[in-house]
What does this fold into?
Amino acid sequence: MSIVHRVLATLLILVFAGSSTASAVSIMDPFNIPQAMDGGTSKVGNGVAYADGPRHKLDVYAPEQRGSAAPVVFFIYGGGWSRGNREEYEFVGRALASRGFVTVIADYRLVPEVRYPGFIEDSARALRWVQDNIANYGGDPNRLFLAGHSAGAYNAVMLALDPSFRQEYGVTMPILAVGALSGPYDFYPFEYFEVQEAFGQAPNPEGTQPINLITAEAPPMYLATGTSDPIVRMQNTERFADRLRAQGVWVTTQYYEGFGHMEPVIAMGALWRWRMPVLDDVTGFFQRFGAFPSGVPYLAVAPDAPEMLPDSVMPTDEIVRQINAMFQPIED
It folds into this structure.
């Protein structure tokens, strides 16, 4: 068994055994061990404060070899607006950095500490930090792309569609394109508890829905989802894409056959990239809209399917099933 598989086996035992040490272990850890992530990348900013408070910190990832300023991806993780932290998505930061992007992943306040629109406002604050500081980390603030998964896809799309969030914090950088994975864009009325907790107090609930905020000025959008997603049905993406096209907005959709809610974001990392070409699809879309105007970005090598783990521990497929089971539905 390879080093990767031995480390995975240890992590899986800790995660699923329910021992006292498991409390310090995240279910996302198997995707973040060094041997399972992209090389040739560096964490150039670790826990950088973009505002006061413990949830107002961000990490920055970059290619180890970089010359001129690189395009920037601001990635927002999901978690139903009530869970998640930036360290769990290091594999995403390094994946995008391996393709030549300076990548920022910021924490934001969660329910119940805040409700809508607090979590979007935090992302807007972090964008202002990017505008003011990313050049110091090798990034070009004039080549900004937003990306996100699940609730993070919602946040990213809202930042792109509702300029008031950016205006409140003086963000003037152009958003060249958005890459949104497994996102909810049309989920009113609020039928499920998690959504009610996050949005139930909004004075204008229909104004919280991205599908109601589309204008012809929206940036190009890449929308992807698994066809078997039980948390946010693929029809949510279809409705949103149709409305974008009706307004003349460039939109590309991708439906990953047979996959669920977490799989698209996990497949961005090196450990699961053999499952589906999410990283290729997202970065190719960003390339179309100006990520690398003077040349072709560095391309990571997609790994082959790994050997199965021993029967005595759960394989990564089971980790993904367990993660999917943690989420409540957002819409029907």
